[in-house]
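ok trying this again, last paste got cut off
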Amino acid sequence: MKSIKKLFFKISLVLSLIFIVKTAQSQVLISLIFGDKLNSPNLEFGLDGGINFSNISGYDNTKYFPGWNLGFYFDFRMSEKTQFHTGVLVKSRMGVKYLDPYPSGDDELDSIMTNGGRVDRVLKYFSVPATIKYTFYKRWFMEGGIMLGLLAKGTDKFISTTDAGDKLTVDKIITDQLKRLDAGLLVGAGVKLKKKLGMSLGIRYYYGLMNIYKDPVDSKFHNNTNIYLFASIPIGAGKAQEKRDAKESVE
């Protein structure tokens, strides 16, 4: 009975994330047009994005993978200093650089890789954060919570140099080796540049709580980690405030 409940929960979670992902890209465009309709005294909507540096634990001599991310966010006002933050990162890349080459199944490629090369593992996710933000000093804030991820695609990039000195990059899809769902802890801190409607700048750190592989590749635990340098930009908030001020002046 417990196994059935767990299976039902996993299926429900996957379907929910798929629904969010399928509607996210169209919602970004719609939200840019009707952003003022999504803002109120207790709700702030906007775009969330920036650069990030990801890694996969359990590997030696690897490097952080730089990338960028973009999505939209909602900040729900809970009290004067507390907000609930959520949204969707439509573009969000994780992974790691400089993995040791391994047999790819392509004899020609494997022959080239023996001359020296590396493998960059690129994982593309749709990520859904859910954190509590607390303003502790003027416009400075801290946040903490969880983030769920739905894997869109996993790719290993075999990078080497041919005998002629040309750079060679060959992609191998590894999506079927990876778990579709990822989940972990998300913490961060930042500052709002203006008291009410300004852009926010900050840093977040994600620590995955799940082994990303379906079948263990070794005895080590391999989880996603990510450092985000982000900017949150309210969309339509100023226009929404003007409408509220105009309405109050008439009344």
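PB: full thing came through this time. The helical segments are 2-33, 107-113, 237-250.
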